[in-house]
């Protein structure tokens, strides 16, 4: 049933692109609660990445602090990415069962505590352990943040919203870069001040989410179940049963989503995690210039996310992803070959325009192809399993650079250095090819109105399948019937 769908609908059908209101009119009609939910989802993902990029920006300082090699320091990045899948499972299940609000608040508070603790680490073992635990909490953020931001918005703005929300990734890296550029050099504590500042921003995000009500979509679903007389224990039993049914019915879709997530995460981490070190070692940049170039690249990411999100609303998610992957491939030479600050910064802008533009479509794409009742668990877990698969990217690049070396002129002398440029070009090029192939054989459910379907704790939620739908308006052919309305009305899905 799923496999035949993989080979059709490269471009959304006409009925999927019609009946939608103009974007500006929809934006003007949003309530302040919808705007606030969107903002808190974006802010949570931004904080997540301020905290994550504290390590890549501090690799050289951490080497000095703990007397470790680049490869050993990047082990902390690998551990963080490995443990993210655990957090995605834990907090995704809590969110789909108990709501979007408090699981995200708790997640952010604990994230803040661990980031604060990492800044006080006195030994490398302490730092390593805290970053591993940090990975668990970091893994819970993405699925909850995207569900919070997107599920209460009209379908007409979800493409744009997806691009902006995902660029919390770039904004987080950009803010971390700015803090590293301005605050860190002027404080006696050095790299630790970057971690402590990130901790405070995460705590602020937790307070912002706590001040807002629960997701309206989730509240309606819970009210409908109460009206049917289902108590909390009963909802939990149904949730567990429907989760098992979802996994049994959608195992092939799960595999596809993980493969896709692995590809774009290899691309993302391949262009980000070792980039400041690459500029300093392979291109002989100062720490200041390497940070500035990183910030320029993240500006390209912001532009790419917005452009790709809006483009996907018109031509579809898959075609947009493939198009932006080709943009990445085209600019790999400009990103790796030059030696000047200006040329490499232009390359960084263009590469991140493509990479983060592509990834900007991911939240809405994974949400649309997800089993509708599992919009926090399914996208979050598959995204973080992809992160787990790509967790060793920075170590692969660091090890590859140590074995594939080149020479540059440094202080008037030829110096033998790791060739991080060539290694990163190979890794990113391979990831681009993989993403293009996997996305073009994947499903498309452009502008699906997933909010019209059941929550995970409602009977039949695990059997709902977006690929059975004849259109994107929550309607199905007459051969099947399922209760659909969040208000508890009976009808054809």
TrEMBL record:
Gene Ontology terms: cellular component? plasma membrane
One GO MF term on file is: secondary active monocarboxylate transmembrane transporter activity
Using the record's annotation, list all stretches that form the Major facilitator superfamily (MFS) profile domain.
37-446
Instruction: Give positions of region: Disordered.
Output: 461-493
Give membrane topology per the record. Multi-pass membrane protein
The UniProt keywords, alphabetically, are:
Membrane, Transmembrane, Transmembrane helix
* Predominant place of localization: membrane
Keyword Transmembrane helix among record annotations: yes
Identify the domain of life.
Eukaryota
Compartment(s): Membrane
Keyword Cell wall biogenesis/degradation annotated: no
Q: So where does this one cross the membrane?
A: 23-45, 73-95, 102-121, 127-147, 159-182, 194-212, 250-268, 288-307, 319-337, 423-442
| Biased segments, Basic and acidic residues type | 470-479
Any one GO BP annotation for this protein: plasma membrane lactate transport
Protein name (database record): MFS general substrate transporter
- The source organism is Collybia nuda
